[in-house]
Amino acid sequence: DHAHPPIHPVRCGERGQFNDESWRVYELITRHFLACCAPDARGNRTEVEISIAEEEFATSGDIVLDRGWLDVYPYSNWVNDPLPQFRNQEVVAFSLLEMAESRTQPPPLLSEADLISLMDREKIGTDATMHDHIQKIQTRTYAVKNADGRLEPSRLGLALVQGYQRFAAEEGMDLSKPILRARMERGMEAVAAGRQRKEDFLHEALDIAQRCYAALERNAPALDHTLGQHFSSQLDVGRRAQVVQAAFSMCRCGASMELRRHMPGGPPGGGAVRGRARGRGRAGRAGRGRGRARAVRGRGPVQRGRAAVSRQELFLVCPNGACGVVLRLSLRSDQTPTAYGHMCPICDFQVLNIKNEETQRNHQLCPHCFNYVPQVADLQQDVELQLELEVLLRLLQSSLRLFECRLIVVWSLWYGHRGEHQHLPVQEFGSYVSSDEAKLCC
């Protein structure tokens, strides 16, 4: 597959040089190599079709003439299974007819070998990458291996496939099928063989990826709905969460939204303290002075480097039955939200102020735009909105900064509208945002 040369033995090995498992691997590689160099196995196959009262029956039998490479490679077998001699159009008598009663059975779950065979048939991946693909779907918990070593789709995997199938009904491209991946694999093979230019392949592949992304973005609500049928939705979790403060901030419908906190189940602590700790005094094996502490087990959340900060699941819930909006706020435990005295000009929800209790710094975000990112192309067409954004941003300019790369005050919109450079100078952002970050931020 052009990924690496075939695996082959490079010198003779003795049984005593290996443990049991290593010897089995070495023997498999060596016998496979020798079988590739051995003569073909030859045999005859007889196929018979018999008609009984307009019902068709078929069977076959094999006769091995020369075992060839089969003598070298015992992992495959070809046995003699001869049939009696028949003549064409011969009439034969049968002695027994059996009608077995049974029920159809679903196909068994795929083993890793079964999946590799299917991937090879559908041209997904190469010999060098197939195992990585299989490992990746397990790492992402789309599938898990059961006690029998077979791959079983998880609830997330089933939900994702059903979501893609619903997306296919809307857009006509089914991302749960291997068609697009196989097409890209064929393109890469063509580039490796010199039948296609690399630039042409990249242009085509990027065009397909961009169209898929745009289509997924258009159909995100439908995909969310399908996934929500398998998992507790944000609406359900938010509405069941405990009320922390009523009348917290304003919804776009005019009602006062409630701030709620979701308390996930499970005992606190019990995690592992990991990573390196730097500091003065005694630190691991470094002794006095600066040093690094080795990983230790302990109670509490997983920590890397400095003390880990847990996250809190907060929700803004509109009590207005005709509205019922639920917005999720995933904040660190050292961040405190409060209502801010401005309404977002994009969605008419009240802006929130987020205070970091450790650094005492503040930044603002719109809770609705944080959850539902508006399209830049749509905003660029609204000149009046750009002017409102400019006024709001100049009011917030001293404290505005990036927050998890998802918040949406679009600094460059009105600058692009006025024909100026898309990146604002650093001084326009106060001390928190660099000019390189000034694309989409809030």
Overview of this protein structure:
GO terms for molecular function: DNA binding; DNA topoisomerase type I (single strand cut, ATP-independent) activity. It is an enzyme of class 5 (isomerase). By secondary structure, the protein is α+β, with helices and mostly antiparallel strands. The chain has a domain of 117 residues: Topoisomerase I, domain 2 (Orthogonal Bundle). Helix content is 31%, strand content 21%. The chain has twelve helices and 17 strands. The strands form six sheets. The protein has a four-stranded antiparallel β-sheet with strand order 6-7-13-14. A three-stranded antiparallel β-sheet has the order 3-5-4.
* Structural class assignment: alpha+beta
Distance between the termini: 47 Å
Name of the CATH first level of the domain at 112-228: Mainly Alpha
- In helices, the fraction of residues equals 25-40%
Q: What does the average pLDDT come to? A: 74
Strand content: 15-25%
Specify the CATH architecture of the domain at 112-228. Orthogonal Bundle
Tell me the number of helical segments per DSSP (H or I, 4 or more residues long): 12
**What name goes with the CATH superfamily of the domain at 112-228?**
Topoisomerase I, domain 2
Number of strands: 17
Query: Biggest sheet: strands side by side, in what order?
Result: 6-7-13-14
- Compute the gyration radius: what is it? 33 Å
CATH fold description of the domain at 112-228: Topoisomerase I, domain 2
As residue ranges, the low-confidence spans are 265-308, 395-442
What does the overall shape look like?
A: elongated
Order of helices and strands: HEEEHHEEHHHHHEEEEEEEEEEEEHHHH
Family: Belongs to the type IA topoisomerase family.
Catalytic activity: ATP-independent breakage of single-stranded DNA, followed by passage and rejoining
InterPro entries: Topo_IA, Topo_IA_cen, Topo_IA_cen_sub1, Topo_IA_cen_sub3, Topo_IA_core_domain, Topo_IA_DNA-bd_dom
Pfam family, one: Topoisom_bac
